[in-house]
Automatic annotation (TrEMBL):
Annotated gene: folB
Record domain Dihydroneopterin aldolase/epimerase: where: 5-115
CC terms in the record's Gene Ontology section: cytoplasm
Protein name (database record): 7,8-dihydroneopterin aldolase
InterPro entries assigned to the protein according to its UniProt record, in alphabetical order: Dihydroneopterin_aldolase, FolB_dom, GTP-CH-I_C/QueF
Entry similarity comment: Belongs to the DHNA family.
GO molecular function: dihydroneopterin aldolase activity; isomerase activity
GO-annotated biological processes: folic acid biosynthetic process; tetrahydrofolate biosynthetic process
Lineage top rank: taxon: Bacteria
Alphabetical UniProt keywords: Folate biosynthesis, Isomerase, Lyase
SUPFAM superfamilies, A to Z: Tetrahydrobiopterin biosynthesis enzymes-like (SSF55620)
Species name: Pseudoalteromonas piratica
Amino acid sequence: MQDKVFIRQLQVNTIIGVFDFEKQAKQPLFFDVDMLTDFAKAAQSDNVDDVVDYAKVSARIIAHCEATQVELLETLAEQLATIILSEFAVSQVILRISKPQAVLEAQTVGIEIMRKKQS
Ligand SMILES: Nc1nc2c(c(=O)[nH]1)N=C([C@H](O)[C@@H](O)CO)CN2
């Protein structure tokens, strides 16, 4: 199955970081998400209930960021990958998180993970 639903540059302003100053104020993160799924049913039904709804995934990412506070991007990515694989009809997720305010000299920095649903 190689069908894909994606999200690009989803901005979430949140508290994240190792340093004390990062715990005092929200900063922007940008999420890129690639989700492998199967379009077969939706292509027949033409019903949004049969797809991985990118709006619902985006809302879930925002809600999780608002509900949790961690230091590392890696921790947040692992949590979100687990949520996406368990709550949506996704067999594999690639999640990239960019933190543009972290390194002054860089346009952006960040991390990427790929996780598959256990079969
Ligand atoms: N691989 C990572 N490196 C760093 C992280 C991170 O989450 N993952 N975080 C920081 C600090 O919070 C940094 O963003 C402050 O500028 C440093 N390195």
